[in-house]
Amino acid sequence: MSMSGHQSARSSTDNWLTPPTILQQLGQFDLDPCCPAFMPWITANIMLSNDNTTPITEGFFEAHQEDGLFATWLGRVFLNPPWGRAASPWLRHMACHNNGIALIPARTETQDWFKFVWPVATAVCFLEGRPHFHYQDGTRAQANCGCPVALVAYGDMNAAYLPANLGKIVEL
Q1: What's the pLDDT tens digit per position in 132-164?
Q2: Does a structural domain hold residue 9?
Q3: Residues 72/74/80/82 CA torsion (nearest 10 deg)
Q4: Is 70 contained in some domain?
Q5: Domain-embedded: residue 96
Q6: What is the CB neighbour count within 10 angstroms for residue 37?
Q7: Number of domains within the chain
Q8: Residue 89: its H or E element
């Protein structure tokens, strides 16, 4: 698709699961504060969720029922926040914690980037193409996410985990 090509931004959800192929390249995380109540794969040693609407399915990993936004963040954090306006408080928390990797839309002109990425982050990996995220039941979405995506590293150790094979890394 060309630079001017796009997909519809309309979606019935702003919660999308990170493809396991991306997660596997980022190393082990201590905390995922923002995952659904039941995950088809492990994202961190501790997974937090205040979402109790996802049905229990055999083979899924259960997240602790605690609101990750208001929990104390410890260690290396993986963050795939809800996309859209709901992402701001999560990105604020990540910028203050300053130890982890966030997967966010690469909308580099937005206030969130100017407040919580550009002045704080260590490096950014702009993913090549638009990834196919997964639904909460673990199935891969048929269409790509419809926008450019970035992995934002907070801290030198996390910048070292950014996978160069997925896109272009820019040190900040």
Answers
A1: 776 777 776 675 555 789 999 999 999 999 999
A2: no
A3: 0
A4: yes
A5: yes
A6: 21
A7: 1
A8: helix 88-97
